[in-house]
Amino acid sequence: MFRGTYTALVTPFRNDKLDVAAFEKLVEAQIAGGVDGVIPVGTTGESPTLSHEEREELITLAVKIARQRCQVLAGTGSNSTRDAISYTKAAQALGVDGALLVAPYYNKPSQEGLFRHFRAIAQATSLPLMLYNIPGRCGVDILPETVVRLAKECANIVSIKEASGSVERISELRARLPEKFTILSGDDSLTLPFMSVGAVGVVSVASNIFPAEISALVRAYQSGNTKLAGDLHRKMLPIFKNLFIEPNPVPTKTVLSWRGAMSAECRLPLCEMSDANEKRLRETLEAFELA
User: What is the pTM of this model?
Assistant: First the structure.
């Protein structure tokens, strides 16, 4: 169901309002770059700071702009099961192709609580759903046995974005899950290692800036051209690392602002990069462009 390159879209702001024109250009650039899907209002899109109305506006725009040229998955996760159900139902009504559900953050539910949370969302929608496991940010890990239970009991839970940082975890999931259940990397720097043991793509932050390059890396590996995939991975690795020298999506928006694509503006509690880190990021980009 979900495989290839999916861009976790940033949300452009200008003077604390949505920059609709910049968002439209961003989605068009992703499609031109050959991505398989875009994900508005995910955590890279600063979803915790968006109003309900802003979430719906961005999802509506993404669906309208994409015009079925790529998939649109809405970020509808929350640490409130009731809110996640509401967000997911609203996204379905707006015509998305699926939803991305981040693990409940801060609450630190048990594995049984996680299972019931995702099952309740799955039962409330017919959308195909992608789980999102990122224990470093959420403080809770969706363990393989819980993913296996969900895949078995919820036919519309069909994929997982894995950002645990563990190649071993990908290997275990691939061994225990049905073949049709897809695994995508949640870290740009681990896309190639993860694909080597069973992942089938990436939910990418870097593709906001480099959609064609990330798509090329994934497709090269999928087509058996492991040398090209490896070359692209090594060339882009410094960028993958330095897009996270400050909290995501601050560095990515900063680069996009240098390109004139949007303002670097984020909403508090996120703020602009330090001068030292901006300098480091510029040097990394210049080295990449010269390579």
Answer: 0.97
